[in-house]
Every structure is written in structure tokens, then in C-alpha cells.
Amino acid sequence: MKKMLTIFGILGSTFTHAQNPIIHDQFTADPTARVFNGKIYMYPSHDIPAPEGQRQDWFCMADYHVFSSENLTDWEDHGVIVTHNDVAWVRPESYAMWAPDCVYKNGKYYFYFPAAPGGNARGFSVGVGISDHPAGPFQFEPENIKGVMGIDPCVLVDDDGTSYIYWSGMGIRGCRLKDNMKELDGESRVMEGLPEGFKEGPYAFKRNGIYYLTFPWVRKEGGTETLAYATSKSPLGPWDFKGIIMQESPTGCWTNHHSILEYKGQWYLFYHHNDYSPKFDKNRSARIERLSFGKNGEIEEVFPTLRGVGVNPATSRIDVDRYSEASKGVSIAYVDTTNYFKGWYATLSEKSDWLKYKDVDFSGLRSDSYLIAQVKAEGNTELIIREKDSKGKVIGKVNIVCLTEGQFRRDNRGRWMTVTAALDYVPSGISDLYICSKDGGVSIDWIEFKNRDKYFRDASGGSISPDDNGFIRRWLLLDPIDKPNRSNTVFTDSYLAEQFHKEYFPGQFTTISKSGKEEKVEKQTLKWHGIDSERFNVKLFRFADINKKQTYGVMFWGVTIIDCAEEISDVRLSAGSNGASCWWLNGEEVLLLSGDRRMVEDDGMSRRLTLKKGRNILRFSVINGPGMSDFCVRFLDESGKPVKNYSISTE
Predict the structure, then answer these.
(1) Which domains are assigned to the chain?
(2) The pTM is what?
């Protein structure tokens, strides 16, 4: 009794984003793509570096993965579906699992693959695995398909259910399959009418009653492969050669191998290139381009792009080096030449340089979102990001400061930096990015748009209560005052006494301002903001960043109103702050937190205080150098429990 082997996929579930190449963590050559159940499944071969003892200058493939996507942007790796050691007829450790295919018929999925047979057999044979699901598990037939001697199987299931198999080996051959999809139904024949020259990797499909046979073809002696095609009125020919789908690789990659499908009304070409292996063209990676037909059914020539297809969510990493268009001065280079899978970066050398990245989906970005960019430059400069083109609305400006002088001097010229920038404008729906440099001499690895965490909301009218733990969350906060302290070690009691008791604006210790009112502090014009904090600890650093103000080396001022229905005696003000802070209740200083501090709940406590009946005014100031400022504050009673029987307002 013959035994059939069932292989369960080793689930990887890795998601990557679609830019060419589409899979970023492994080589994926010879991509056969099929549409099953409204989703694209891709069956590539899996190039790997040859292990010791194997031929080092040749193709080396030990297994197959299968990937799927619903949007051509996010790809799920379903893991290994079979290896060269798992099928009875395949020679173990043969490393010859070349280009496969998979089709659906009569409720089953048939996975066809070439491999080196065991025993005394030479060359390649083709086998088949059968599954109830396109990602497996597959049950593999213990014997190869008799009469198929070659590589690169492709199966066409015609409209009437008749199936045909094509493969390459001494030319391109084809034959009808029996209904069991495991045996040839007759003798195979050479496909006639194809051009002279080396051909392999056949991929057949039918459109509008016309059969298309597409194939890699070396048209010049000593050349590399093009992708070409022929048509026929019959699935087995004779064929009428039509021409080229894709020219030879501009960088000399010897092979190309492909598949063609229609998905959601658009035709696509899947193919490969040695993007992640520039010095060795036997390690290839899958790419995708859009494909179109002329009015008479001719396939229009397809040109390779970096951008590829698929919509890139703005909230996912956008590798702008995979641009759609660019000026002549833009160049790309590998981020790390010891690990090409880390990808590329783009350099805008001159002031006039620009690049465009198409099809970015801004849906879901809020008006307070921001962007992050990985950049490096030879001097201080600015990246300008617009919508669509050079005259489009400015989405944001990325200020790149790699060289500073004075107290905070630093020199990051030529070093990668992760920088953030607020947005001036958020496009709606799907749009294009246009990126240019103010001065040139800047490189970009990637950008990403992010929604801010909700740290604050505008304080509404009326009053609120302390939170469940007694923390005070409603405040009037003033934009930060510049205090360029290089280190927090200067925060001695004497220094803080001078800074905290200095008058920066009129009524600083006596009046309560209003949200929106401005104060003049030396050369700065600062505004008051009424806020409710979403957290018990008020994130002053985020407050400054949201309002596009200096975040480091600053002093913050805030005030709130505590309304008590009755007098509350013997309470203590309990506070914590990142940076030094000073606290006043009803015009009297009640607590000083000095030195270089981190925000710790109840880090310091005042002496016993009395909250008088009616209105009490609580003020604070926080000063910080290079750290991220925040604070928390509440009142505790004699037993250490939070005091909560009062209301909080800002007017």
C-alpha cells in the first residue's frame, strides 16, 4: 500500500508592507500568485544561502512557504508547507525545490512542484500535494507524475474544467491532465510557435477566450531573461508569438520568473529580482507591478518600479526610498551592506531634488497627529513634505538639527537620527507624498505618521472632581518659558528660589488668567490653555510638544481653583514631579521639590494645611533641563487617604 505524507505548515504569520520587494525577511523567487476565496495566495520558491557542501554558485532551495494578502500591502507568511526531506520520491538534502504552482479544482487545492528525484534518476521530476485549504496542510503523493521530466510546472484549469499542465525541459512542453490531477492524459508535446532561444518558467492563463502562454526568454546570446508571451485559440497551441512583457534586468539579474492574475478588476504581474542580494543573482525576491491589455488583447509592456503596488497606510512605515518618481539627483543606497534585508535609504543631494511616493492612505489620522522620520544630514536643514506635488499643501516640515552650539552642543552630522514633527495639514483618504529638501544634503530611511496618545482634552465649563485616587487633573497651563539648563544638577535650593520667585509676567502670583489669553515673557509670546489631563500625571512634555513649543530646558507654570463646600483642615499637599517644582496654596509657598527628580507619586509632602471654605488657588511651577517634564498632585488627610470632597475649575 502506498503511503501519502501530510505536511502541516509551520506557521510564521509575519506581516510586511507592500513595496518592491514585497517580502522583507527572506528570499522569495519564482512567485506564482493565485486568487482563492477572494484572497491572493503566493507560492514562491525559497532561495537560501547554500550550506557547506553544496554548490555555492548555484540556486539552493530546501522548502516552500505560502503567503497570502487581501490588499497587496500586508502579507501573511503561513510558514513552510513542505521540505526536500518530506516527500518520498524526492532525494533528501537535494536543495532543488524550484518554481511551484497551485490550482483549485473540485473542492481541492493541488500544489505542483519540481524536485530532484531519488535513486538513480537524473534531472528533475514534478510531484503534487493535495489539500482542503490553499495554505495546507497538503498530502503529498508518494510518486512523481509520470511523463513529466523538467521544472517550473504550471497548471491551467479551463472553463469547462479540463486541466492542462505545462513545464520546461528541452523547451516548453504541455499536456492534458486526467481528472484526478495526478496523471497525464496522453503524450506531452512541445509548444510550437515560440521563438528560438532559452525558455523556461511557463505560465498559462485565459482571457476573453484567448489562451496566453507567458515565459522567461533569453533572446540574445549571453543575455539575461526577458518575460515574453504568445497567444493561441487552443490551450496546447500552436502559438503565435507576440512579444515582450518585461525587458531584461537593468542590473543584470540572470533570471526572471513570473505569474499573471486579475484581482478586484486589476491585472498584476508577479516577478522577481535580486534586490536583497545585489552581488549574487541566485537569491531573488518577489515584486509586483500593474499589468494592462491593449484593445486587441495584447499585453502592454511592464516596467519595473521601486514602489510596486498596494496602498500604504500612513500609520505604517513608509520606505520613501521605494519612491514612485524622483528627480535625477536622488540616489538610493543600502542601509547596511552586511545585511541587505535592512533595506535602503534615499538621498536628496541638491536643493532642487525631490521624490514622490504614491498611494498613502491617511484615513484614521486625527488632526493632532504627527510624523516620525529616520534621517541624516551633513548640516542643519529642513525636509518639506507636501501633498501630491511641488505646489501641494504642506503636510509638515521636519526640522533636522544635527549641529548645535552653546550649552546643549551636539554634533550628529552624518549620523542617523529619529526626529518628530507636528503636522500642518492632514490629507483625507488616499493621496501622494511629495518630499523635498530646503538645502539638499539629506538622507531619508523612512517616515511614519502617528496619532498622538490622548494626553489632554480641552477643559469644558463648570467644574470636575478629583479622580478616584484624589489627583487633580484640571489646570490652566502656560506655554513653557525657555530656561536653557544643560543639566538638572544646577537645581539647588538657592537657584530654585531665585527662579521660582522671579516675576516673569504680571499677576503671576495673584491673578487667574483665562484659556487663550497671551502673556509676554521677555521675547516670547505665550498662551494659557485650559486642559483636563487624561492621566493622573500631567504630561508637560507632551503639552509643549502638542503646542509646538520647546520641550527641553523650560519652565512651566500652572494654576487651578479648588472650591470647598466647607473648611477642610489638617490636609497635606502631596506631589511628584520630573524636574524640580514649587507649589503655592492661596499665595503661600507650601512645598519645594528640588534637585534632579523623576516623577514619583507622593514624592514630597507639605506641612499640615487648611483648605478654606470657598475658593482656594493652587499654583505650581516645574523647571527641567534635558528631561521629560510631568507632575502629579493631590491632597491627603491625616490618615494618608485622598481628599476628594471638593471641586476643581479654572474660572
Answers:
(1) 5-291 (2.115.10.20), 312-450 (2.60.120.260), 456-649 (2.60.120)
(2) 0.81
